[in-house]
Amino acid sequence: MNRSGLEKEYLELGNELPIIYPSLNFKNHCYWRIALDNAVGDQWNKKLVSPAYKNLSNEQLQQAVELMQSFKQDAHLLQEKNKLSLQYRGKL
Questions:
Q1: Read out DSSP for 45-79?
Q2: Which residues form the domain of 22?
Q3: Spatial contact of 66 and 29, defined as CB atoms under 8 Å apart
């Protein structure tokens, strides 16, 4: 998939996931945060300027999209990656 296709999918997935997991009470930006932090291996805004998805490398964007695709099927992975994201942010 080309860059613009990945960016489109990234945005769509962030908007789909709150519908899949209404009980989590996460907004779209929460899913993007989780995917971004895990793709860059740190709090994303320490490494990138906003908008992050426009400033990720192609590999990082691909990884973020693949993570969010996985979250659709795997709530346990989502929770693990959320904990890691919160650790990057000093919230755990």
A1: GGT-PSSHHHHS-HHHHHHHHHHHHHHHH-HHHHH
A2: 3-88
A3: no
| Total domains present in the chain | 1
Q: 21: which DSSP letter?
A: -
Count of residues for the chain? 92
Distance from C-alpha of 8 to C-alpha of 13, rounded to nearest angstrom: 9
- Chain-centroid distance, C-alpha 15: 11
How far, in whole angstroms, is CA 10 from its chain's centroid? 8
Q: Encode pLDDT of 52-91 as tens digits.
A: 999 999 999 999 999 999 999 999 999 999 999 999 999 9
Question: 3-class SS at 34?
Answer: helix
